[in-house]
Amino acid sequence: MKPSLHPIMFAGTGSDVGKSILAAAFCRIFKQDGYTPAPFKAQNMALNSYATPEGLEIGRAQAVQAEAAGIPCHTDMNPLLLKPQSDHTSQVIFNGKPIGNKDAYDYWRRGVSEIDFRKEVCAAFDRLASRYNPIVMEGAGSVSELNLRATDLVNLPMARHAKADVILVGDIDRGGIFASVYGSIVLQAQEDRKLIKGIIINKFRGDMRLFDEGRRMLEDICCVPVLGIIPYYKDIYIEEEDSVSLEQKRRQLAEGKVNVAVVLLRHISNFTDFDTLERDHRVNLFYTNNISDISRADIIILPGTKATLDDLLELRRNGCAQAIAHAHRDGKMVIGICGGYQMLGQTVSDPNGIEGSIASLPGLGLLPIHTIMTPEKTTKQVTFEFGGQACKGYEIHQGVSDTDEAIMQTDHCIGTYIHGFLDNAPVIEHILNGNGREAKDKGQKFVHTFNYAEFKEEQYNKLANHVRQHVNMEQIYQILTNND
Fold first, then answer.
1. Same domain, yes or no, for 231 and 169?
2. CATH number, domain at 35?
3. How far, in whole angstroms, is CA 12 from its chain's centroid?
């Protein structure tokens, strides 16, 4: 029988140091080693979310981590999700359901709420810990934000409740690794400093032997062991949570391929909808808000958004709306998903100010639907038939359109509320073979043999193997079973 392991928390010296990916890696490692792990992040801030089997909403990162652990995702894995709506406000998702919008100052500085969130996230952890072992916890941002310590629900206060062993993750690629790691540790209160049992240096480039002395120095000044130095990788594909990476995907048009332009919205969400399409070697998928790129693309996709009306207004201001309409008239395929689907309709109205101050705007007029924003939010997993084959996806959206059709098609325009729509082989085959004059002219018939579920399993295993090779798993297991 496997020994019970302490919870493990991956906390960071800053944002985007690789906490989410490492948590996914260890979910898979523990699963491979015969344990029953589950991910946990008390509070997440992201626009990329996912619907649980119960039809509730959590952060996409925890859904990915649950998939790596081989278990269904659940709201206890991410009881509190903040979805930014502006620089100052966020929609608060509590136990999978929206409970309103919060001002950032009230939330972060004063902790103003009628709900005792600290009590609730601890209760969610306790429920999860009663069913799984170990719990693989993820911190948020920097572990040493002193000004937010009183209201911190995610980092060391959560680790104290969970009695977790904390692994501090630093990103050596951005520089300043000694200052960021040492500072993150020394700024902790004495009781919290004792929780930090190890350091992982992430995103190393070059010959790791060059950091041998640096490793010893880091251990000397921090009095904490360095448990691993993980090299930067480029050939492992795990769904990402933050849209920061999209700025690196503004690729140029490519000859001999089907060029797919995803319109880069300011409030883009659920951009993982395009991962399957992007992986296909016949497709050149890129993100852009450049009018020329849109006009020359073979297929144009309007993605999901957290602020449909605001992004629709911006599309009209920057000329993208007109470019999409012109491309459609020229026979190009246009696809809208979720908020993008709403934009392709006749009108989008918000009489109750759900999204903001814009009451109504005309859509692009490519589909015969009208949408009204409503306080209720739709979140559910769905199955549907496409091309005579069973497909699946999920819905997360604000607003109701005056149609019962899950998928609306005209000659060369498709709109749907279904996220994961493009993860289904019959859909990919249809859009690359059946519609869009330019796409059809690219060459031989496209035969879709790519299995996204199998691909993801392969990537989780590759990630786990990559991390195993570069961390001291024996030492980590000693830490997680040491009761001293």
1. yes
2. 3.40.50.300
3. 17
Per the domain annotation, does 244 fall within a domain? Answer: no
Report yes or no on 289 lying in a domain.
Answer: yes
Domain match, 438 and 462 both: no
Query: Which residues belong to the active site?
Result: 338, 419
Residue 453 lies in a domain: no
Residue range 167-201, pLDDT digits in tens: 999 999 989 999 999 999 999 999 999 999 999 99
Distance between CA atoms of residues 286 and 293, nearest Å: 10
Half-sphere exposure of 425 (CA within 13 A, CB side): 12
Residue closest to 11 by CA, chosen among 172, 167, 227: 167
Query: What φ, ψ does residue 357 adopt, rounded to 5°?
Result: -90, -10
Q: What is the pTM of this model?
A: 0.87
Q: What is the pLDDT of residues 214-246, one digit of tens each?
A: 999 999 999 999 999 999 998 898 987 665 556
Total domains, the chain: 2
Q: What angle do CA 366, 305, 313 make, to 5 degrees?
A: 60
37 and 158 together in one domain: yes
Strand runs labelled E in 52-175: 57-59, 80-84, 89-94, 97-103, 135-138, 165-171
Q: What share of the chain is helix, strand, coil (3-state, %, to 5)?
A: 40, 25, 35
* C-alpha pair distances (Å), 1 with each of 4, 35, 48, 171, 212: 9, 10, 38, 36, 37
Bond into 303 cis (ω within 30): no
Q: How far apart are CA 65 and CA 183, in angstroms?
A: 29
| 87 within domain boundaries | yes
Where in the sequence is the domain holding 434, given as residue range(s)? Answer: 257-442
